[in-house]
Amino acid sequence: MQLRLSFAFLVPLLFGLSVGSGSAAAPSPPPAPPPTKIIFDTDIGNDVDDVLALGILHSLQTRGVCELLAVTITKQDELAGPFVDAINTFYGHPDVPIACIRNSPSKETGRKFLVLAEQKDGDKLRYPRKLQKSSDTPEPVPFLRKLLASQGDGSVVLVQVGFFSNFAALMNSPADAISPLNGRDLIKQKVKLLSVMAGAFQTIDHNNHFLEYNVWNDLPAAHSLVKDWPTPIVWSGFEIGIAVAYPAVSVERDFNYVNHHPVAEAYYLYEPPPHNRPTWDLTSVLYAVFPDRGFFDLSPPGKVTLGPDGFTGFKPEDKGRDRFLILPTKNLERVREALVQFTTQPPAVANR
User: Fold this and answer.
1) Beta-strand pair 312-316/120-121
2) Are 74 and 165 in contact (CB under 8 A)?
3) pLDDT in tens, 50-66
4) pTM higher than the cut 0.85
5) CB 232 within 8 A of CB 195
6) For 150-196, how does the pLDDT look when each residue is reduced to its tens digit (9 = 90+)?
7) Parallel, antiparallel, or unpaired for β 124-125 and 120-121?
8) CA nearest 176: which of 141, 151, 139, 152?
9) Superfamily of structural domain 36-344
10) Which of 232, 267, 235, 237 is nearest to 249 (CA)?
C-alpha cells in the first residue's frame, strides 16, 4: 500500500507541532527568575580585577539577570568613589549609589587607574560623573543598614572582593533608628549569601603558609567576620583567579567599539599588556549571579578557620556555614570565555 501524505499533514511534523483535529498552543516557557540583588563591596584602586568585576555586574544588569543595588568601597582614596561613579555612568547606570569608607585600617595607596576619573578631553571629562570626591558619599555602615532594611527577607547577595572592613563593621553595628535589629540579625534576616574573594584553599602556596591579600589588609575585621557571620559564605580562593587569567588579547581587541573604554584603559594603566591578569574578583561575581550554572564545583560544607596571621584553613563540618569554589580543569575555558563575554559586552547606551 502506498502512503500519501498531504502538505497540510507534513507542515506540523516539520515544525514540531502536534497533529490532530485541534491546534494545541505551544507550552509557555517557565518564567525567568527575578534578578539577583547584589551589593558589591570593593577595594577598587589596588588591582584592576575589581574594575573587570564591576563591568561584569553592569553587563549582567543590562541583561536583566542581576540588580546592582549599591557599591561600597573599602579603599580610602578621594578618587575611588568618583572612579566608580564614572564606571556606573559609562554603563548607563548612573544612579547606582556609592558609599566609601572613612578611616580605613589599610594603608594601601595604589591608585594607578583611579586618575581616569579626572582624565579630560579638552575641557570635558572623558568619563562623565557627578560625584566629586569619595568623602561626599555616605559612610558604609548606616548606608548598608538602611539599604538592607528596605529589602525583602533573604533577597540580597553580598559580593565582597576587597578588605573585610565594611561588612564586619556592618555585622557589629547596634540597633538604631534605621532598624531595631543589630547588624548580625539584620544580615541574617535580609542576606541570602556572602560571596567573598579571599583566602587560599587548594594551592601549593597555601601549603607553604600563604597569606592572602584581602585577609591580612584588615586582619581584625577578617577575624571578626569569620567568627560571627550569620549567613552562608562561598569563598573564591586565591587559586581560582590564578587558574583563569584574563587574556590580554581581549583587552587589546574587544573594547574597541568606543574610542575610550574605562575598563581597558584601567587595565593598561595598572599593567600594560601583554599580560594575562588573574580573575580573582570576577569569579566571586560569576558565582554570586550564576550559582546554579555549573561554572564551579563546591567543597563540602565546613568552617573556614583564620590563624593569628591571617592564614586560612578549612575544616569539613556537617551543616557548616562555609564552602569554597573548586574549578575543574574541564571548566577552565568555559569560565574564561564567560568572563570575557560578560566583561566586553557593550553598554546598552550610546557612548563615544
Assistant:
1) unpaired
2) yes
3) 999 999 999 999 999 99
4) yes
5) no
6) 999 999 999 999 999 999 999 999 999 999 999 999 999 999 999 99
7) antiparallel
8) 141
9) Ribonucleoside hydrolase-like (3.90.245.10)
10) 267
